[in-house]
């Protein structure tokens, strides 16, 4: 099953049909690979890095003890039943258990706390910090290594690839976000940077520095208009700016001359740059600091109050060391490496400031990478553990608040329990998608990080795992730069699969063969510097010739040395061979940027880290597959096919013409024959199709599921359809289509359905809704009321409905005994539609008592009806306008009656030639008993698809052009026209009239404006917007405007004074009791005029009265000129 098929075949003709495969389909496993692999990486090495980098909490108690607490190690256990629960069949908890119990699939997070008193180490203490959610099919999941047969045994699909979290019964997926490329100095222009201080310009060098625990920080080297530079670092969302030469002097104990030589090396003839370097060094001297020690003390004194992590007994130099270690270029380990990188940033900044090289674009794919779910989970877990350590410190200080209080193991353990845990915070993060972070985690958003894994159908479910989002911040931007599809995204980001509307260009999808790089083997990475030295690289320790023509060499943001421009191409070729042969990591990116006037800053940038987008191509020289990245692709010569190859110029070849499209775009039949927007529409409508979202219906407990009862395999489909086994989750119907304007109902973007086909089950669907009922009171239990015999036909003795029972509005749904008031209570059906009880499940718990939670699954029948939405796979969407009797529809010579009548006017403007070809191919496939290949780019101008399928039709005895003579179903006469007639795979979309229809006469209104509330479920009014208003105005329908916007909206009666023209001054008639006990009335009176003769009642919109009231609150009086009332 793993081998890529060349052509589609009928599923039931394969020898493995109806058999559970022995291993997971490789193409499906790749969908969840970035998610599962990143989570596994966190479990194996990531948690160790997190524990290493969590800053220890050091403090002094009133007794004089100096206590230091830190986390030694972290681990997450597999989900299990608590140990205090006995008499269980198995202790393992599986994902289906969590789904059906409406619980979270979680394992225990434990830490080992290390602590010391007065530098004397104490025995470490283990502590459980609560249950944290674990990812399905990861190493922390009980199904992590399960075979397809074992997956089926435990209630999952045999093709389940994991990558999701089960949170409170719902499937959640962490979004993959597009981030700035890590550890690469990017020259950027941002107008907002000019507001950061005096003389700041819009130019700077930005580095997204990422530590091995995936915690990221942004360092920026700002260019100032006075020819100097400032270095920016942040701490707890607070930005700080320091002269760059002051940072350099803190990093290395160098003299000013040595720093000057390092900065100007290679640019000795650039007089402007030399002057700027001298000016920056002179500015540091003007501060009165000359040595490295003085600089460290100077910075430590300045920032002491901001960095509470450094204990008060430590000197100021310790603050500077903390800043260097934790806030400046954290991906580098030594001060010398950080020094060399900042020197390069200064050189690049001043060269770009002079216009010698181009500013780079952070919206370009070559400057981007992907934030993976496991890494975001790891970052947030690390921050929550750091906050837990801070809470532990507070608990200890509160406990040891007297001079005679001494810390002990028992006190430490007690405070660890009081400090709380991390389980609730992690579950809240995955349930809501929001993070409450004190540092920001290097993200531009704190909400929308997690989405529901909607399982409307298989295509919708699959698309979640390949989706990458630019970030919610960019949805509010008015500029379009972030939405543009640039050429360097070819092969990495699908140009077809992006939604229309607000998220267009921001929510993209990875291509079919695009992979996200993993963390490489450290031994292979460590061997790269020595390999480069053998190839001729000049190390940094050797001073080069002044103004020598050299390229810089970087490895994961670390400056290694230089290479001569004349030897660069040979070294690049040698590195590619080493990558192909496995001497260096397979996913290493060889980003060679050659020198070009006014081009990108040149150099050889090698990247081996994780989260980069990589894809395979064919290396023509070495005749092997090579993975390339976004940075290097722009400077490579890659041909689409062999016809486009140029000798001695083309170096690589695409593996397939279809690999630049996403998983869903590859399911469109012949997209190269469609107008491009139609392919985009199909990617969206395919995800809204009713189909077969799952196979384990008896174990499903989702809130809402759509099911197509009569799916069929498409007769004309791309080979990718077979590769991902989409027939197992079929989601369409083959329909006989006649392209003819037959009645007034088959207008453009509408279609007629054969009523007899409808009655035979054409596009028949159902909706499954699950209701969870939980009795919270201890004395309550489910039972049928013993004194209500009318409940017997609806409910069983346990108070729950019989499966198969038909329910309507007001029918008894369940009954229970309320122990608090000692009465039976019958809960009735509140759904407006009739439905059938599909299943009733009693859900267990870890307590020994009657089961108090049930899941009632209801099945709602949804046959196709007028107004329901349908679409072909060519983006031809339309609604069912009428169900026409079969006897009145046209028929062919062979007696075939169409299932769908499609209006021919839908073709010319949409230019969906692929649907025409599908009509012929589907007809031919039905004749010959097979399926035909709809993979794009298989046909050409020399070998056209229309000619091929036309000949296949001729071989079956039909017309070459796919047309037939039809006979009128009304009078039986032959139509004097050749009608296009064939088989098309149609999709029924989930947009149905029963879910959309809305009607209201009177009802609830808004308290402030007295206008009808919105919302169909709340009984709100039908929307009447600006477009509807403009339409009525253009038709001059004044009565309808008054009816909609006044009488049926917020009409109100109010008093108005004719003399002063006020609607606020007149008072209503007041009736009060007089002294004799009778009633006396006071007429309507204007408070301003004191007169009641000119007051009368008028009708106005309440929103207008509200406006007048608001104006009066700001001392603006509104007067009305009244002629006659």
From TrEMBL:
Catalytic activity: RNA(n) + a ribonucleoside 5'-triphosphate = RNA(n+1) + diphosphate
Record localization: Nucleus, Nucleolus
GO cellular component, as recorded: DNA-directed RNA polymerase complex; nucleolus
GO process annotations (BP): DNA-templated transcription
InterPro entries linked: DNA-dir_RNA_pol_su2 (IPR015712), DNA-dir_RNAP_su2_dom (IPR007120), DNA-dir_RNAP_su2_hyb_sf (IPR037033), RNA_pol_bsu_CS (IPR007121), RNA_pol_bsu_protrusion (IPR007644), RNA_pol_Rpb2_2 (IPR007642), RNA_pol_Rpb2_2_sf (IPR037034), RNA_pol_Rpb2_3 (IPR007645)
Domain DNA-directed RNA polymerase subunit 2 hybrid-binding: 665-1018
Occurrences of domain RNA polymerase Rpb2 (ranges): 181-370, 452-516, 1020-1121
Alphabetical keyword list: DNA-directed RNA polymerase, Metal-binding, Nucleotidyltransferase, Nucleus, Transcription, Transferase, Zinc, Zinc-finger
UniProt-recorded Gene Ontology molecular function terms: DNA binding; DNA-directed RNA polymerase activity; ribonucleoside binding; zinc ion binding
Signal peptide residues on this chain, from the entry's feature table: none
Function of the molecule: DNA-dependent RNA polymerase catalyzes the transcription of DNA into RNA using the four ribonucleoside triphosphates as substrates. Second largest core component of RNA polymerase I which synthesizes ribosomal RNA precursors. Proposed to contribute to the polymerase catalytic activity and forms the polymerase active center together with the largest subunit. Pol I is composed of mobile elements and RPA2 is part of the core element with the central large cleft and probably a clamp element that moves to open and close the cleft.
Family statement drawn from the similarity comment of this UniProt entry: Belongs to the RNA polymerase beta chain family.
PANTHER family named in the record: DNA-DIRECTED RNA POLYMERASE I SUBUNIT 2
The protein, known as: DNA-directed RNA polymerase subunit beta
Gene source species: Drosophila mojavensis
Encoding gene (name): Dmoj\GI21635
